[in-house]
Structures are given as C-alpha cells and as structure tokens.
Amino acid sequence: MAPTQGPRAPLEFGGPLGAAALLLLLPATMFHLLLAARSGPARLLGPPASLPGLEVLWSPRALLLWLAWLGLQAALYLLPARKVLINLALLMKEAELRGSPSLAMWLVNGFQLLYVGDALWHEEAVLTTMDITHDGFGFMLAFGDMAWVPFTYSLQAQFLLHHPQPLGLPMASVICLINATGYYIFRGANSQKNTFRKNPSDPRVAGLETISTATGRKL
Fold first, then answer.
1. For residue 212, what are the β-bridge partners?
2. Is residue 21 part of a domain?
3. 134 is in which domain, residue-wise?
4. Those residues with Cβ within 8 angstroms of residue 19's Cβ, 6 or more apart along the chain or in another chain
5. Which pLDDT tens digit goes with each residue over 89-115?
6. What's the structural domain count of the chain?
7. DSSP letter at 218?
8. Nearest CA to 37 among 158, 134, 214?
9. In Å, what is the CA distance from 32 to each residue of 36, 148, 177, 188?
10. What pTM did the predictor assign?
11. Per-residue pLDDT tens for 160-183?
C-alpha cells in the first residue's frame, strides 16, 4: 500500500489567480509611480497619469538601446562598483539643467550609495535570505531585478529632477541623523538574522527569543 500523503502546503500569493494578478499589477504599479513622479501634482493617490502614445512606448531605436543597456550591465558586472547608476545619471541631468546638483539630490545619491555599498560589503549575507534559499527563478525575480528595483529605487531622484526641493543645512543634518539611525537598525537586524541562520547556537544570538514555524524552523 502506498504511503498516504500529508496535506498540501497552501500556495503563496493566492495561488494561480494571485500570481496572474501580480503579472499585471506590478508593471502597472511601476508605470504609475514613474508617471506620477514626472507629473505636475506628483500625487500617488490622484487619478492615474495618462500613458504616452504608442510611438513613445515602442520604437526599434528603443529596442536597440535596451539591448545595448543589457550589454552594458554585463560589462559593468565585471567591475567592483556597478550599481544605484540611474541615480547618478539623474544627478548629472540636474547639474545640466540647473548648473549644479541640489543638496537634496546629493543626499539621495549618497544614501543610495551607502545602501549599495552595504550590500556589496555584506554580500555573503545575501546567501541566507529567502530570495536565494527558497524562491526560484521566475517573473518576480526577473521583473524585480530588471525593472522594479532600478526604476522604483530611483524614484526619489526622479522626483527631485522634476520637482526641485529647497533644502537647508539644518534640515539636511536632521535627515542625515534619521538615515544614520535607520541604517544602524537595518544593518544590526540583518546581521543578526544572518548570524542566526548560519548558526542558531552562536553565543551572540543563542539567548534570543524565537518563534517556531510550521516547518519546524525558528525565527
């Protein structure tokens, strides 16, 4: 007699219908964010901005530029510093339009550079994250890496390019303090999780309170 199978694990993202919805909603959300950042009111909760005409959305020249961009990414991958370049391009564009980058633009680029530098410095910690240990390669990873991450992580710089924001040194100092506090929490929490995943018996995390999961693992 064949062994009986246990109950099937629930499907993630709401099953096939939820996954199909993500295929449509994620690109639509990204377009809405980009168009809102470039619009006059720049309101996320307002009516969706109108899409540009088909001649703007598609052209053979755009396809060639996209293929060239992919080749450039492959070449930059061989260099130590290869990421957060969209932001730098926006900084240069602001300097071209207004004579010099604004203080707000410098801060956005600096904070993003810190984030990318942290990811490169602690790259080995990525190997214990869910993206690597659990998720397979599919739409979420491909769309995330090719579209969502580069074009939504650079929204702040795109907003500043189209909507300049005056920023004085006192407020810039407060913003830097808030960012430093957030980075300290972010790095400490992620380093702690990585240490626990690699060795739950490590003295640095052995005494921490944990939560048991349905698979028998601990958070």
1. 218
2. no
3. 80-167
4. 13, 139
5. 888 888 888 888 999 999 999 999 898
6. 2
7. B
8. 158
9. 6, 12, 31, 34
10. 0.67
11. 998 998 999 999 999 999 999 999
